[in-house]
Structure formats: structure tokens, C-alpha cells
């Protein structure tokens, strides 16, 4: 899950960046509104955490322009305690959720999981598909009732492919979602992770769509 964090407060940004990194997100962090908008319009993310008070372009304007472009990316806004009007304006501009500063990092993580769930069209937290059961809260995965240990990247990749199944995910999109800007991916890394997932679950779980990417069939 690749997340763009847009926060100009360095101490707060570092705290969020570390906490979400430990949670298994690929986190890219920008500190001003104008570069954030550019990144949001040109790259692939699963989620954005957007502070409203930002240099170079405020968060509300970033959000309005993002929605104006037709993007339905889940966005959680961060606002100050006394700024009720900002929260209302943020929700009206297309934010999916908000948190008031200061907030608990555990609550931020839970709200982000809920946003991911809603954007994948699921009401339940647990993902169940083709004998696989994946719990985003604990990141435990089982296959026909047996616990299956996965590396963080294998977990992320499986989560992307199952959110929801039935979509062809291009190689480019999967690589962006898994690695972001901070990690350099070797050219065959994605294939290696796919190979391991097929071995740990079943050979026909993930279909290769030649020249495009990968797909987990909706009904199996
Ligand atoms: Ca700020």
C-alpha cells in the first residue's frame, strides 16, 4: 500500500512516516502543497494523508484540484483543533475522513485501514478469497486455515491484488505501490515476489496477463 504523506511539520511528519512504515505501508513524504499536487496527479498511490496548512498551496486547494481531475483517491485530512470550518470545507471538497491534531497514531492507522477497506468496496475488515484469509489489522494471512508466513513485500503485493480481485494490475502500478521513491526495485523483483506467492498459495492464484501485468480472478 503506497501512501503519500503531505505534512510540513517535520517532527509530526517523521512520527507518522515511521509509524506507517512499520505498519507495512510504502510511505512517500512531501512538505508542500504544490509538489504534492504534482505527485498526486502523476503517480499511483492507494491513500493520501493531507495536512491543510501547507506552504506553496494549502491542503484544501490541493484536494479541490485533485477531485477536479476526477481522482477518487482516498484522502484523510489533518486539521487543527479549533478549525471546525476547515474540517467542513475539507469534507465538502472531497476528503474521505479527517483527524484533529494532536491525534493518536493508532487511531490514524485504524482510520487508514477503514479507508482502504471502503475504497476496495468491503464492509468487513478481513479479506477472504479463494481459501485465503487476510487480516489487515494484524497482517496475518492463512490459506485453508493454515497460517502462511509472508515477507512484508509479499503481504503488500497480495493485499493489492486482492483489493479487490478481478482487476488487472499493471507491472508499473504494482512496482510504484510496492516501492515508492525511496527504494530502488531490481527489474525482476516483482516476478520473484509473484513466484513466491504462487508457491505459498497455489500456482494458478495469480494469472500473468502477458505484456500487461497480473490478475487474481474474481471467481475461482
Ligand atoms: Ca501544517
Automatic annotation (TrEMBL):
Q: Where are the 4-aspartylphosphate modifications?
A: 51
- Coiled-coil stretches noted in the UniProt entry, renumbered to this chain: none
Listed Gene3D superfamilies: 3.40.50.2300, 6.10.250.690, Winged helix-like DNA-binding domain superfamily/Winged helix DNA-binding domain
Q: Which residues form the Response regulatory domain?
A: 2-116
Write out the entry's keywords from A to Z: DNA-binding, Phosphoprotein, Transcription, Transcription regulation, Two-component regulatory system
Per UniProt, what is one GO molecular function of this protein? Answer: transcription cis-regulatory region binding
GO terms for CC?
Answer: cytosol; protein-DNA complex
Domain of life according to the entry:
Bacteria
Q: A Pfam family this protein belongs to?
A: Response_reg
- Start-end of DNA-binding region: 124-218
Question: Residue limits of the OmpR/PhoB-type domain?
Answer: 124-218
Which processes are annotated in GO (biological process)?
A: regulation of DNA-templated transcription
What name does the UniProt record give this protein? Winged helix family two component transcriptional regulator
Q: Give the organism, scientific name.
A: Pseudomonas putida
